[in-house]
Amino acid sequence: MPFQYHFGIQQKMGKHWYKILASVLIVYTIFAGLLNPVPRLDILNETIRNLYYHVPVWFAMIFMMIVSLVYSLISLSNSTTQSDLKARDAAAIGFFMAIPGIATGSLWAKYTWGTWWTFEDPKLNGVAVSILIYSAYFILRESIEDEKKRLKLAAVYNVFAFVMMMVFIMVLPRIQDSLHPGNGGNPAFAKYDLDSGMRLVFYPAVIGWVLFSYWLFNLKNNLSNIQHKLSNE
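Structure (tokenized):
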């Protein structure tokens, strides 16, 4: 019995390791991000701490959209409901992660650029357009009743949505003038102020939020599977 008990605990720990790690890393980075020393730079000042919260959330959002893209491609090849549901749920979590991403970015912009939002920045415009594109993805899904037709159209549109998002938030800002670091000729954070102390918080934050988004994705997909089974009974 003791052996079986400990083996059962090990199995559960092995199954949920990423949840534990995500929780530990996020709690660590929240407190370390507020308490650890940061470089003293003009304009940014203490707002540079937002790097620990704003950027990792966007990494998690992009990660989820990549997961959604992969399942859409799988859905196109095998036409299974499970792949379609995973593609939708990953996109939903990615869309959800964009909300704190925009909120923290808007707060940062207020204290560094003097405004909550500016349409002069191509990356901000790209984010807004990308949100509208993915909103159309969810609307498209709800407007088609035939399951097979919805699966194919949604998968094709999701591939289009991901490509357009990459163009608007990764490509265009790098070839146009932009206020964001690393875009439009501005040096990236890693080139001039992401010192070794900040890396000890920033990298764990990215890993923590990516794992957290995957955790939310699994929860959402489990719920979707239950709802799908109940609707087909």
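Confidence is low (pLDDT under 50) at residues 3-10, 184-188. The chain has eight helices and no strands.
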